[in-house]
Amino acid sequence: MATRTDDPITSPVAKQREIQAQQDAKDQKKNAGKADATAPPKEAVQAGARFHPDKLPAQHIDKPGRESELDLKPHFEAPDYRGSGKLEGMTALITGGDSGIGRSVAVLFAREGADVAIVYLNEHEDAEVTREHVEKEGQECLLIPGDVKDPAFCRRAVDRTVDRFGRLDVLVNNAAFQEHADSIEDITDERLEETLRTNVFGYFQMARAAMPHLKKGASIINTGSVTGLEGSAHLLDYATSKGAIHAFTKALAQNVLSKGIRVNAVAPGPVWTPLNPADSPAEKVAQFGSQVDMHRPAQPEEMAPAYVFLASPVCSSYISGIVLPATGSIGAA
Question: Is residue 276 a contact partner of residue 288, using CB atoms and an 8 Å limit?
Fold first, then answer.
């Protein structure tokens, strides 16, 4: 069956896969005939409530990246995390909530008493799994497929959330597009626009749409990145977008503070989600996260409690305009 590229959801997927295919071809040409000189891995640090994987599969998947396709399933349920009503009676809207960090945030928000709306592109199977786990926590979950690059969709997503739940208390901007490149000359105008419109415009547009519905005590949480703190030689456009998100977070926090609305960001290091296997070649995916001080990637459930902390008025009522690093390395700021 032919792919419909005029469909409002199918079209951005086709564009992302075209960008991915162009980069994959460059990677294959560059790596042809190269010998494997992989250094032996260092011992990974385990400092949490349960063991998290330190050996990853050499897997490359198609964009936009589906969690259901990963050979190693990310840890997102946080079985040792106990809810205590920190978000009781609240409603959260999470973009990119179908998988990865967004899914784990949705589950823990529900465990803390919030109903959740999930915005995602077209990963329907993943989104249904998220809904199932939110409902297991005793909360309602609304699924809203669409493209955050479209400002009209952002308004519709907010309106649907408010129509369903009667309120909006927390917006989590988390959807992202990432594709590596060896040189700035490899980043076409099309790729640059896809990255910035998804990662920056999408955040701005969702926040703008949500603002009329946010009351005193509400919050916005943006997903930044260690690449926005430190830069990245092979993620030039992505790192640029994440630096912009950090600046947007601080600027918007100043803009809405008088309304009693807080705006913060979390800057994760490497996290095992569909984003990286849908970007890097398989051999690099197998080494993902080994370069940080903990010598392994984080799992989504290791990030999600930071979002709970920043969303909850009983935890962070005096905190706004921060970028919270959760990078797996010492001294990242």
Answer: yes
Among this protein's residues, is 307 annotated catalytic?
A: no
Residue type, 218: A
Q: Which are the contacts of 245, defined by CB distance < 8 A and separation ≥ 6? A: 173, 199, 200, 203, 222, 223, 224, 225, 228, 265
81, 238, 307, 318: which one is catalytic? 238
Task: Using CA atoms of 262, 267, 271, 274 in order, give the dihedral in degrees to the nearest 10.
Answer: 70
Q: What is the pTM of this model?
A: 0.86
Q: Which pLDDT tens digits describe the chain residue by residue (333 residues)?
A: 444 455 666 678 887 777 877 776 766 666 655 544 455 557 999 988 898 988 888 888 787 778 888 888 889 999 999 999 999 999 999 999 999 999 999 999 999 999 999 999 999 999 999 999 999 999 999 999 999 999 999 999 999 999 999 999 999 999 999 898 999 999 999 999 999 999 999 999 999 999 999 999 999 999 999 999 999 999 999 999 999 999 999 999 999 999 999 999 999 999 988 777 887 778 888 888 789 999 999 999 999 999 999 999 999 999 999 999 999 999 866
